[in-house]
Prior knowledge:
Helices cover 31% and strands 25% of the residues. It contains four helices and six strands; from the N terminus they run ββααβββαβα. 19% of the residues are buried.
Amino acid sequence: MARAGFDIREAEAGDLPALLALYRDLQPGDPDIDGGIARERFREILTHPGMSVLLAVSEGVAVATITLIIIPNLTRGGAPYALIENVVTNAAHRQRGYAGALLHHGFAKAWEAGCYKVMLLSGSKDPATLDFYRHCGFVQDKTGFQIRRPAAV
């Protein structure tokens, strides 16, 4: 899908290096992933039903990404719901509308799939980030919880 000055498309196998570079901007302290593991995980992602990685591409460069997961459901009359994760824009390309356009593209895909809601969790406490998500249409009216795997496991 073409936008003013950039395109939005689904990631393909050849996009792995660009995605890994974007994810370094998201979590700079994360350890590097082994190349073989990265290729296997990305293959799993690309073939997982209901899961897609969307890219904003400007002048041939992937500058932003989100992951959209559409999840089957037995409540709400069987209407699925969606989850958005790994929202990241390359630091040098922020404030240009890429992430907002990706989110809205993700919403459109979710609505087209019959989803009744789209969820996103953010660990950010930055008021500008939270305002950005509100500006995109998210409402902060639920309580989110998470549990992480203990380090010893």
